[in-house]
From TrEMBL:
Signal peptide: none annotated. InterPro entries: AAA+_ATPase, ABC_transporter-like_ATP-bd, ABC_transporter-like_CS, ABC_transporter_ATP-binding, P-loop_NTPase. This is ABC transporter ATP-binding protein. It comes from Tenggerimyces flavus. It is a peripheral membrane protein. The lineage of its organism: Bacteria, Bacillati, Actinomycetota, Actinomycetes, Propionibacteriales.
């Protein structure tokens, strides 16, 4: 049996430049077995370069990447890793079934082709020539190639990029079934909702560095905590802004008053003590999009 004890992924001081471009600047990241982690960041943040180094497709200038304690190439050769990358064409002049079979046969312990196609939701495409596929279907074939080796770790670079809403939903249903069996997943995405909904943990990158790492809820709360909105007659915004835990007070929609809070619990207690006539009170988290923009925009502090 394969020894897969220890961290599924361990990146230690990973650094890479392309000429003057410092693409990845000292990334440390541990991913435990069974975690589903989203790598989020704006264009050029260094996500693909990090993934390439993790898979042994690019050599770091400094630092190291390990998969279950092994060098990336060794882990890939052992079939411990399944990857779905954006780049790379799919072999033409074969059927989908033949392609997945060929790919599986290069590895030690492939699952049956039918099962890989089933897991990717393309059982009906087995006999389809690979040059007769839509963009979304090609993504699913890539996914079948990633799972046919029955890997412990799946690394997916923007897996749902060419899929419509329905295809995306069914893709994630399939992923859920896989992760329920304890597989580890690292996926890069631009869809914040996907990270929010499907990842146990979100790692935000900006300019080659990790700027936030936690559950989606923790990351949201990093950005100005929460907001409290209420109906309050004759509100004095200046005094409201001075309440403990409050950063800013403003008028919101439909005559409501909104407090942006660093500490919403503290602010709520102070609000109720000072303004008993505040009614219709709602406490809301900032959404991941606000947090993403705040934490990844150049010049923001983290
Ligand atoms: N082969 C290369 N040669 C030169 N510069 C590169 C190369 N690969 C990446 N870069 C640069 O390194 C930086 C990080 O790029 P990378 O592709 O890792 O970011 P990313 O977060 O994956 O972006 P995207 O979301 O657009 O895919 C960018 O400034 C990019 O232009």
């Amino acid at each position: 049996m394969t020894n897969t004890s220890g961290m599924a992924v361990r990146l230690d001081g990973l650094t890479k430049s392309f000429g003057a471009v410092r693409a990845v600047r000292g990334v440390d990241l541990d991913i435990a077995p069974g975690e589903v982690v989203a790598l989020l960041g704006p264009n050029g943040a260094g996500k693909s370069t990090t993934i390439d180094m993790l898979l042994g497709l690019a050599r770091p200038d400094h630092g190291s990447a390990r998969i279950f304690g092994r060098e990336p190439q060794a882990a890939v050769a052992e079939g411990l890793v399944g990857a779905m990358l954006q780049a790379g064409t799919i072999l033409p002049d074969v059927t989908v079934g033949e392609l997945v079979d060929l790919f599986g046969s290069l590895h030690k312990k492939p699952i049956p082709v039918e099962e890989a196609l089933e897991r990717a939701g393309i059982a009906d495409l087995a006999k389809r020539p690979t040059n007769k596929l839509s963009g979304g279907q090609i993504q699913r074939v890539r996914f079948a190639l990633a799972v046919v080796t029955d890997p412990e770790l799946l690394v997916l670079d923007e897996p749902t990029v060419a899929m419509d809403v329905e295809a995306r939903r069914s893709f994630w249903t399939t992923m859920h079934e896989l992760t329920a069996t304890g597989r580890t997943v690292l996926f890069a995405t631009h869809y914040l909702a996907e990270a929010d909904e499907y990842a146990d943990r979100v790692v935000l990158m900006r300019e080659g560095e990790i700027v936030a790492d936690g559950t989606a809820a923790q990351i949201k709360s990093r950005v100005a905590g929460r907001s409290i909105s209420m109906t309050l007659e004759h509100a004095d915004l200046r005094r409201l802004a001075e309440l403990p835990g409050v950063d800013e007070a403003r008028h919101g929609r439909q005559g409501r008053v909104v407090l942006r809070c660093a500490d919403s619990d503290l602010a709520l207690r102070a609000l109720l003590a000072t303004y008993p006539d505040a009614v219709d009170i709602e406490v809301e988290s900032v959404d991941l999009e606000e947090a993403f923009l705040a934490l990844t925009s150049v010049g923001s502090t983290s």
